[in-house]
Fold:
Amino acid sequence: MTFSCRSFPVAEGRSKKIFLRRSKNDDGSTIKRSVVTPRCNNSNNKRSVKRSSSSKGGSFENSIVFSLACLEELTKVEMKRDTPKLIDLWMEKYTEALEWKLANEGSLTIKKTDDKVPLARWITYQRKLAREDKLTPEKYEALNALGMFDVKRRSKGEENNDRSNDGTKKKKKQNQRPKQSWEQTFEELILFKEINGDGTKNQLPIKLKRWLNAQKNTKSMEKRQLLIDNGFEEYVNPKKNARRRASWDTRFTELRQFQREHDHCNVPATYRLNRPLGYWVATQRKTHRNGTLKPEREQALTNLGFEFEPLKTWYRNGPRNVDELAGKVSVSWMGRAAPAYEEKQKLVFESLRENFREFDMRFNHRLGRLGSIKPDIVIEVNNWAMIIEVDEFQHKKYERDGEDDRLEQLRDYFNIPLKVVRFNPDPCSMKDERDFEERLEVLKEHVRNSIEVAPIRDVEIDYVCF
DNA sequence: GATATGATTAGATGTCTGGA
DNA sequence: TCCAGACATCTAATCATATC
Structure:
């Protein structure tokens, strides 16, 4: 593969060098590439190029050639109605995007590390303008030729629509978009929906997307109702379903509310009851890691007891022993406990097993038909059993969900007297500052004493360190 | 062992806002 | 109107663990 270079007029009095890709045969000879007539071109364009017979429609090379031709045509058209300076700026960005695409095997994806952030923003901005139907037809066509609005998958119907009967691409002339009545486009939309199903809104052809986006301005109540009835309300009433950005303060208030309810700020990143809050919390940690979190925000979060380094990372990378753990474990979880957060329970179990080897002890034992109930630790003692629950933050969730039902189910399952020990490993008030290790000693002492005495009633509950 | 589920994270994208 | 900074939102990849 070799590259040829030619000058290309960008705006009056300026030129840009654009690299064109040219293939070579195995024997080293260059493949002849004849001149193509671009779709957006008019008959007066003398520098028109024609697609090589060997190349398939939509190839990377063709899109570049097409983009260049569009750009050239665009220059002429835009110069008539915009200031040279603005045209110049736009052309410069367009050319930069084109160069980027050439250098990156046809991809317009730009990473932050590529040092092309302004170009990425410009591309985003152009896409936004396209969505809002604010681009001139020439600009839209030029950007489209560059693959700026490429959707991931194109429907068969759309693919076929681009071709005439003989299989060649139809020519689309500038300012000559097929004119359709509202009803015709609506029918096309419904057809697309019927063929592709309800879940394909994101794959709508760009033409239908743009048409839909324009419908928010539709005055006709009848048309609006038709769209709403067919599941396109978000386009008619865009604000209703649009993603709304909440401010930092709003999310902080939500976090404070969460903290009040759960005694901690560790909102799971995929917290189902408030997904945006989960994303937001993850973002705060990320920003903190990057060192770009504003000091006042960091302070506010710290004051709320926010943990910037989730324990999972700590467990993964750091040493795992009680000494290291003491005073650091303070995380409970919503719903299913994150496996890494069960480390504390595991430590309690290992410590007890070490001290009470004579007893049959099980950790996180799933109860057959009661699969949803898993006592943290079960110790079987002759004709009765001791169940130890490591109640991080006093299992407030269980209280809400009905602890009585849970105990009843446990009793039904075991069908022998039960002694339930609820152990609180975390400081629950300023008055009780015993750390995890001290509490563990208290628990061991309690188990040592109470394991000698069988329960009198069906179920007895002891609270340790509450 | 295969599959399902969920946590975590980096990176990409979209949105808001203010300044030129 | 355009652009850029800030950051909220989302996606995808990866990993760990539970469950079948």
In short: The longest helix of chain A spans residues 60-79. Residues 109-113, 120, 124, 127-128, 242-245, 247, 268-270, 282, 285-286, 289, 310, 312-313, 333, 335-336, 338-340 of chain A lie near DNA strand B (CB under 10 Å from a C1'). Chain A has a mean pLDDT of 58. The CA atoms of residues 311 and 317 of chain A lie 10 Å apart.
